[in-house]
Structure formats: C-alpha cells, structure tokens
Write a structure and sequence with these properties.
14 helices, mainly alpha, two-stranded antiparallel ribbon, 444 residues
Length: 444
C-alpha cells in the first residue's frame, strides 16, 4: 500500500503556514479583512479534513479529500483575480491609470501592480514549452540512432513548439492596452488564469507525446494510437487555450474570422488516426507542424485587421458597429440607448449632429440624449495613436505611447497621492501624467 500519512502531514503543515500568514494580513491590513477571512476559513477547513483523513488512513479517502481540498483552494485563488472595483473610463472607453500603470478607481481601490503576475504566467508557458524539446533530447538519448528520421523528428518538434510560442506571443498585450488582468468583463482575468494552467499541462503533454513517438521508433513501424493521440490532442488543447487567453483580453474581440482556425485544429486531431497516410513518427510531427504554421499565418493575415478592438488602434471614424456598442456599454448608457445606436458604425456616429442624437431617442430620453451628445463630442476628438502619456482630465488616448492629443500640461496624481506633471503636447503628447488602462483585480 502507498503510505499516505507523510503526504497528509506535509500538506497540512503547508496550510497551517498559510493560515498564519493570512491571520497577520487580517490583523494588520484593514482592506484585506474580508479576503483574509475567506482564506483563513478555507485553510482551517482543509486542515481539519486532512487530519480526519490521517486518522482514517485509507488511500481512497485520501485521494477524494485531496481532490476536494485542492479544488476548493484553486477556486478561491482563481476567483481572487476578479476586478473588485469600479474604474474610471476615458473618452474612448478604455480605463484610466497613472504613469506608473496604477488603475484609477472611481469606486473602491485598485491594485498597485499586476506586472509580476503577467511575468510569472508567461514564464510558466515558456518553461513548459522548452521542456517539451529538452525532454525529447535528454530523455531520448538512449534510443537515438544515427539515422535521418531521428534527426528529422527532433528538428520538426523544435519548429512546432517554436511556432506554438509565436501563437502565444501574439495573444499577449500590455496592461494599458486591455490586458485580461485589468478586464472587468467576461471573459477576463479568471479565464486568463485558468487557461494558463491548462495550457501549461497541455504543453507538458506535448513533450510527453514527442518523447513517446521517439521511443517507439526502434520497435514500431507505426507508433501506437495512444502515443499519437497524446501528442495531437495535447497540441489541439494548447492551441484552444491560447485562443481563449487571447479572447480574455479586452484588446481582442471575437470575429467570425476566428472560425478559420477550426479546420486546422481538427486536422491536427485527425492526424492521430491517419495511421495509413502518416505511418512514420516524423510524418505525424510534420503534419502537426504544418497546421501550426497555418495557424500562425492566419494570425499574421487576420489578427490585427479583424480581431483587435479598434478603440485601441483607430479613431472613431475607423470603428465598427461592435466597437460602438462596446463604447455605449462602457459608458453605462441604458439598454434602450444602446439598442437605438447598435446598428451605427464609427463613421455614422462621427457624422451625427445633436439633432440626430435627439431624434434617435424617445422624447422621454432627453437627459440621456444630452449626456450622449456630450460624450460623443469628446469621443470624436479621441486619438489613440499619439504620445507616451496623458494629462489629468482631458486625455484622448491610452497607454505609454498612445496618448496626449490635445492636453497641455494638466496634472495627474500617482499612487501615493503626489502630484505628477503631465507635459502633453498637442501633436505628440510626450507626457508623464495619466495613462489609460483597464481595471486590475486585487490578487493574493
């Protein structure tokens, strides 16, 4: 039998240390009391369950309890990435932040920095991608033979994972350009975190698939379907996770062009069952590599043009109807107002006059019509292409390298409440005051 008690004792000790840490947070940080109490209750319950399991000393009970405890902790941890405050919005519908990247909260308090989370999740993906090739080279050295197909398999696997990394890089964006961790909508930060976890495991299983195909080459003319399936299904799951990570960002939107990727994903999976056409292991890897490259080409041709929200790249005249609807919802207009203008694209909204706005809404919506016209006037001046920063009040862009058209030396405030000058210029806006960015969740 497998000895369970040492694992239970070690896990229980880890949760005890976490309880002590969150008790300190609860005692010293008034803002963290509610969050810390959730954690304290969860960890205490987990410790009790594990102690009960130690007394029962049954393997099945141990496995069930571990699944329950780990699932509960993962749920609470992932849930902490939700945005828990109301951010200020700019004229273009993006959220404001100061020059340090700290989101400006209209209600509540924003977190100080999300960059470490972005970096760590990116490192997980890069490490697991590299390990897929490293495991093949190191682990397969015992069966390697000086034949072309062995060299070919290693090279094709490397190229496949290289373009998988390119797909992942194309799915990233800066925090000030609508990153998922600063997205207060759905899907957002929670989806982004979950998909990174699944993606890391899928990439590891890609490495397992490569290694199994490599190990089966001396003994099998055609690798077992089980080995082939591990590679093909893991690769398909990894691609789906990358696409979901992309959609979780506010910068990227769903477009029907995205469906062009489905045939490539389906054909990668089909390769596991095409034992007659793809007999050799290197042929299967070549098949997968070709379709991954096709996905990369689709990104190069379609991603920027169709799947990027144009509020981050163009003025109102270049917006589609979906950007107009998103802007109306972000500005928190009534559903009746959103429906009245849902068929208008950017050029149509740019050409509207005050009388057009009033005539498009019922007479009982005069207040909403005035508010819409006031915000629409400011939206017409919105330009996301200029500068590196913003002034405090009348900024018309977003992010470092995207702002400051029309602001002249307004003043913003940094995270510590100190005034920081915004030296915006009318043409280029090289200011250092407020920048735009979406809201970020307060995380553990």
């Amino acid at each position: 039998p497998i000895p369970c008690v040492p694992w239970q004792s070690q896990t229980s000790g880890q949760y005890q240390r976490r309880v002590h840490g969150h008790i300190i947070y609860y005692a010293r940080l008034s803002r963290s009391k509610r969050y810390s109490m959730w954690r304290i209750r969860l960890y205490v319950a987990s410790i009790v369950l594990l102690l009960i399991t130690m007394l029962i000393d049954d393997e099945i009970t141990f496995v069930v309890m571990m699944i329950i405890v780990c699932t509960s902790i993962i749920f609470v941890s992932v849930n902490s990435f939700r945005v828990a405050f109301k951010p200020e919005v700019t004229d273009g519908g993006t959220f404001k932040a100061n020059h340090k990247g700290v989101v400006k909260a209209e209600i509540g308090r924003s977190p100080q920095d999300d960059e470490p989370f972005v970096e760590r999740f990116g490192l997980i993906v890069m490490i697991t991608t590299g390990e897929s090739i490293l495991a093949l080279i190191v682990g397969g050295s015992g069966v390697f033979q000086q034949q072309y197909d062995y060299y070919l398999l290693v090279q094709l696997a490397f190229v496949t994972m290289f373009y998988m990394a390119k797909l992942y890089f194309a799915s990233n964006t800066e925090l000030h350009e609508g990153h998922a961790l600063v997205e207060d909508g759905v899907p957002g930060g929670v989806t982004w975190v979950i998909c990174h976890g699944v993606l890391a495991y899928a990439l590891l299983f890609c490495g397992v698939g490569f290694k199994l195909l490599f190990a089966s080459m001396p003994d099998y003319d055609v690798a077992p379907k089980y080995y082939r399936g591990i590679l093909c299904f893991s690769l398909a799951i990894a691609i789906c996770c990358i696409i979901m990570i992309r959609v979780a960002h506010d910068k990227f939107i769903y477009h029907h062009v995205m469906l062009l990727r489905l045939p490539s994903i389906a054909l990668i999976i089909a390769g596991a069952f095409m034992t007659d056409a793809l007999k050799a292991s290197w042929e299967l890897v070549l098949w997968c590599m070709c379709w991954v490259i096709v996905l990369y080409v689709v990104d190069e041709l379609c991603l920027e043009q169709y799947e990027v929200a144009r509020k981050y790249t163009e003025t109102l005249k270049g917006w589609r109807a979906r950007e107009v609807v998103d802007w109306l919802c972000t500005m928190r207009f009534d559903p009746d107002v959103v429906r009245a203008f849902s068929d208008k694209d950017g050029p149509a909204m740019d050409a509207m006059t005050e009388s057009d706005v009033q005539s498009a809404l019922p007479k009982d919506k005069k207040t909403e019509a005035k508010d819409l016209w006031r915000k629409l006037q400011r939206l017409k001046k919105y330009n996301p292409h200029h500068g590196h920063g913003h002034g405090g009040h009348d900024d018309h862009g977003h992010g470092h390298g995207h702002g400051g058209h029309g602001d002249h030396g307004d003043h913003g405030h940094d995270a510590g409440g100190h005034e920081s000058a915004a030296h915006g210029h009318e043409a280029h806006g090289h200011g250092h005051g407020d920048v735009e960015m979406h809201a970020a969740p307060q995380s553990e």
